[in-house]
Specification:
This protein is an alpha/beta fold. About 45% of the residues lie in helices and about 15% in strands. The strands form two sheets. Strands 3-4-5-6-7 form a five-stranded mixed beta sheet. A two-stranded antiparallel sheet has the order 1-2. The relative contact order is 0.12.
Length: about 290
Amino acid sequence: MPRDFNTWLSGFRESIADYGYYTDFAKVHEHVQAMKVELNILNALVGSQNIENEFTALIRRYPEVLKCIPLLLAVRSCEIAAMDEDGEFIYDFASISLPVEQYAAFMRKTGLFDLLSNHIVHSLVDYATGVETGLDSNGRKNRGGHLMENLVAGHLEKAGFVWGENCFREMYLHEVTERFGLDLSALSHQGRTEKRFDFVVGTPGRVYGVETNFYSSSGSKLNETARSYKTLALEAAGIEGFSFVWFTDGRGWMNARHNLEETFDVMDHLYNIRDLENGIIGKVFV
């Protein structure tokens, strides 16, 4: 019986976030712990009335303290570029590459000296923990993608598939060809591109390449994804013994529904979370 797209779309979820989605505090504490000694040394400058001189003296004695400075600006890189009327500089915080006085100028011009000398912060360890928490929020997009992968993986396990035997994570086309003996050149444009599937499932009669994603917000990427997966589905349809399967969900699709509907109309195996909960894996992977 043909499925109705609007009915199917109406079942999309607002969110699949678990409690660990928002902030990975274990990673936050790990990053801060790695710089705790240096942060505590630099903490000696809090409230200083002669901060520039004390900073240069401190760096000459403990040059390793430099490595924690980018974190105070919420920067991951060990190199920071900055320019003004005094010139353009590349500051290396992994080692001293400029005169110590130039690093002092960096601290003054970025406002870090003001942060320390005026007691705006009292503990750089606590401050760094807050900065790391903010930086970690940037990882939610990746964690959101993994949430959908983990959800599908759980249903594959529940259906009886075994990792490394008939179910595989992150498998490239050439690896699928080597393991299952399929000619997937139609998907790689005759070897010019290298596609990687989130999962590959093998059954006695067929091999399934699986993609998963969840979009809680809209954006141009959704239209691009729908179009590329439509093309992939049409290319896969001509490969004997192979099927392309896509699990997607999320209210972000509401603003990209037309492109998704076009893909829905040509794909035999496009499913959402409700389909997973209704046992679609046991019906498809046979």
